[in-house]
Amino acid sequence: MKCNVCGQDCPDLQPGETFCGECGDPASEHVTSSPSLERRETVQPPEPNRRDMLLRRGTYSAEISRKNPACLVFLVDQSGSMDEPIAGGTGEKKKQVVADALNRLLYNAILRCAREDGVRPYFSVGVWSYGGKDQVQPVFGAELLSISDIAENPKRTEKRRRRVPDGAGGVYEEEFELPIWFDPVAQGVTPMKAAFKAVVAPLRDWLSQHSDSFPPIVINLTDGAYTDASPAPVVSELMQMGTSDGNVLVFNCHISKQGGGTTSFPNDGQAAGLEGLARELHEMSSPLPDLLRSQAQAKGYQVGEGARGYAFNADLVTMIDFLDIGTRAIQDRMEIA
């Protein structure tokens, strides 16, 4: 397939992609081929810079409505090491903390979408678990479901406690019933590349139907090294997909069992000391659009220019903040009526 802007072959360009992978120009009028197109000279910057260029072309400002819903995708590591305690001294296992955080996030998203006429389909949501014997599974059976359908089909409810304002400047704890969609599991290996690969086709289909929506956000929650091949080429493919509002955003939260320094939303300079998997996950994370940078700054994070959606050595608090920042911005963009 040729780009009608630069004339270069762009073999990975597919329906639903907004930007040419070669020149980075908008591809809304891409044609299948045109031998007469005049080729122009382009200078290709290194891959990370080209990825940043693609991101900056998006405005990430689309209102989220029933006509133009958002899309949230979660990839959840359920390998054997998720049975270890999470950093922070709580004693809770990583698998349980992640499951609780994800169930609460889904529940809060449902509450934000609830109106007098029911839960409106402002989101499509997909959750894939990966672990066991090289298994990648869509948690809901279907790959992407409307938040309206998710609201109607929890597995069960469980009693939880939460802190709420008392109206006089203090807080108190109350018990509530939390719907459960996602269970804590930890076994086997870490097929991370296969997990990223599993979401490519569903997102292409979604993008072909929602070309003007806020672009999908993919959040990967993991605590260890992948056991298959590097996910980087697949992540690059995802980052070149998008809507008229911007490219798909890929964020990675690297959960730890060790106490110590946490690195949250680093730019390239701040990540210079990261090595191995940490460095690779940073490179596989999208730069934060201004909208999400503001969300991180509002939570007290020092987020500089070029910050990426990556957290290293995340403890319980950091992981919960990471999920909130990664999803809050689009929830705040829902239509009011």
Question: Can you describe what's shown?
Answer:
- The protein has 337 residues and is an alpha/beta fold.
- The chain has two domains: 1-44, no CATH class; 70-331, Rossmann fold (3-Layer(aba) Sandwich).
- 28% of the residues lie in helices and 21% in strands.
- The protein contains eight helices and 14 strands.
- The protein has helices spanning 47-56, 94-113, 147-152, 192-209, 232-239, 276-283, 290-298, 316-331; strands at residues 70-78, 114-115, 118-119, 123-131, 135-138, 145-146, 156-165, 171-180, 217-222, 242-243, 246-247, 249-255, 263-264, 310-314.
- Strands 1, 4, 5, 6, 9, 12, 13 and 14 form an eight-stranded mixed beta sheet that branches.
- A hairpin with a 5-residue loop joins strand 7 (156-165) and strand 8.
- Helix 2 (94-113) packs parallel to helix 8, helix 4 runs parallel beside helix 5 (232-239) and helix 7 crosses helix 8 (316-331).
- The longest helix has 20 residues, at 94-113.
- 45% of the residues are buried.
- Residues 1-6 and 10-56 have low confidence and may be disordered.
Question: Gist?
Answer:
The chain has 337 residues and is α/β, with parallel strands linked by helices.
